[in-house]
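Board notes, transcribed. Complex of a protein with HDE.
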Amino acid sequence: MPKSTKTPAKPAKRAAAKSAARNTDSGPSEITAALFDVNSRKMAQTQDLAAAMPDNANKTAEHGFANGVSPVRGATAKPASRLPTGSTLSEDNRSDKTGSVAREGVNATIDSLDRVRVDSSGRVLTTNQGVAVADNQNSLKDGVRGPVLLEDFILREKITHFDHERIPERIVHARGSGAHGFFECYEALTDITRAAPFQRAGKVTPVFVRFSTVQGERGSKDTARDVRGFAVKFYTDEGNWDLVGNNIPVFFIQDAMKFPDLVHAVKPEPHHQMPQAASAHDTFWDFVSLMPESTHMLMWVMSDRAIPRSFATMQGFGVHTFRMVNAAGESVFVKFHWSPLAGTHSLVWDEAVKISGADPDYHRRDLWERIESGNYPEYELGLQVFSEEQAERFSFDILDATKIIPEELVPLRPVGRMVLNRNPDNFFAETEQVAFCTAHIVPGLDFSNDPLLAGRIHSYVDTQISRLGGPNFHEIPINSPIAQVHNNQRDGLHRQAVHRGRVAYEPNSLAGGCPFQAGAVQGFVSVPARQDARDEQGKVRAKPEKFADHYTQARLFFESQTPVEQDHIANAFRFELSKVTVPAIRERTVAMLRNASDALAKKVGMGLGIDPLPDPLPLALASPAEPEVTKSPALSLLSRPGDGTLKGRKIALLVAPGVDGASLSAVQAALVEQGAVARLVGTRIGRMPTADGDTLDADASLENEPGFLFDALVLPDGAEGVAALAQDGHTLEFIKDQFRHCKTILAFGASRALLAKAGLPLSMDKSHAQGGSGLVFADAADAEAAAAEFIAGVARHRHFGREMDPPLI
Ligand code: HDE
């Protein structure tokens, strides 16, 4: 047992103890109750603290299965004061830089972004060392016409920082846009999970979301045909949880081992670095046609899901099966679904291609503008919850990321909503530096054994180390949790935290055991994997048999689409494969499609001049299990029309000198009332006179905002104005694109002539409109009624009834 410190000290001993307490490299055998100065008090209290933990009390609890699933809370002892656990006795000497002593039990590197937000209003320009810069225009020279001096530390600092402004872009998902918001829980889910965001009705958790494309580089176009990333960081009060999902619920591959191959195949080809942000090239189709498990994903990627109209109009999915765990340690399986309140709407391919030229930032701009204008994107979180026993009976394997669980089999349980209501202050600091990671989960959640997920749990932390320059990326403000961070990890590049005290290990007695392990009640505990899953085999590189059913769900997806959506899928395959230069790869893909849908294969084959069709690819599994569901209407984009509002929709009202102003203004007011962005698009920007002697001020022009950037079109009345528009070729292109992309067009009075000049089949008149042609004709005097009809048409988004392949005009 250590010697007691409670013996009263004699004067000689006091002097010895006093001087002993001033040394850092050795000490006496006995420590006296030395209350006469702070050094010796610290020494004595340190001895007491260490003595309070005579052994490692929890050592026996490290062993055995029961302890493994229910770890104990760490042993700890309370110091007599803060003296023994501090780094330095000089910590009370504060300055503007050191501030005060560490707040007890607090890690101040976390918390809101306020501590790092910068506002320079009213401030002078400084160097990075805070030195005011007198002249930001000229470098320091030896004479006005003389050479620049090496001494110019201000110039050198500025240029050096600039030289290092870029960081490596993400290997995949490099192109993205982010927003802040919140998640609000509808009801307590304590029956199935103890995860912090779901603990009571109305609980609000801050989130940061990043949407992305996968293939393209950081500056690539938004409207590429591609999967969209849908990554949500929940800053929960029990740590950060990242739900790093996509807008498509399945994936190309089943095992992380194939991910680098997939990415190498889809990225621009390595010899000439083409094409940018496009899967329509040889190496991608070569790879996927040799990987039949990708067929299901290909159906989704060739559907309009891969060209969303807006981040606010696409679903999000966690893709893998996860687990939820309640306070009693009982777990269920769960799949995560985000559904947009605005409904699921997409572009059409011809439109996506054109947008990428006119506005490569189309989705980024749309997200930014929606939030700035108060049209906050909103999504409902739904869970598919099922048990291990249920999962065993499914015809597919829930560990296989190329499979969905049809909603008809396990319905969605709505559990909360997410609202994106705040744009970032700074793109780089927030959207570029945010680091999502599938390994970031909180107590109450856990992984399944999905082998794709396993690789991700490793990859996301690993990749940040080179992308963000070291292991301390969690301390970058956008990544730091709002829950306290306390551990013994230390040092590394760019460390922010200044840890108080000398202890950076556990177990310890010199910090009273702190920070101590939380134990099962508070801490994260992995759900013990089922024993029997491991019983039959030892270590093995193999897949379960149900993984070999590559086509049943590809068929389910295709059969569940409306005829229009099926046409779009066929056309997308035709387009992509037409860009492939090697006929054998095209044929192999068509042979693969035959196993999912012969009708689709035939259509694609016809479009590519492949006749006769090749034999179907051999099956990996001769007789797959009978599917529970052969049609799932929920898989159609058109099954989610949304709340029917016009919020965030962009509508063009064409103007030129001499148009009828009153009718246009009436429609514009009605549209704005509905939350739409209704813009006056002129033959040029600026004011122009109307037929009734007023003026309209065009804020966009036919040249700078072409027709395909708008969701709908209003053409004006007024002979003079219409004649001016007719003379501008842009007008006719504008109308053609609106017509070709099946958008609602309202034509007042004289503008009918413009439609005729653009070559529209005017037999689609008002009577056809009832059937959904989306063409509304009206007299200027009837503007109000016309606006109502037009708004109803726009709410339907598109009028595919008039779509033709190839397009008529
Ligand atoms: Fe990712 N993925 N991924 N992924 N992923 C990355 O992480 C990876 C996969 C997804 O906005 C990288 O920080 C592997 C599926 C999103 O910052 C990297 C595998 C799903 C984002 C990485 C997958 C995703 C990423 C690149 C197969 C849907 C963007 C930079 C085992 C559920 C997050 C980074 C953001 C980003 C690895 C497959 C979604 C390299 C190894 C399946 C939304 O770590």
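Residues 256 and 353 are 32 Å apart (CA to CA). Residues 170-173, 176, 210, 212, 229, 231, 244-246, 251, 256, 259, 319, 401, 435-436, 452, 455-456, 459-460, 463 surround HDE (CB under 6 Å).
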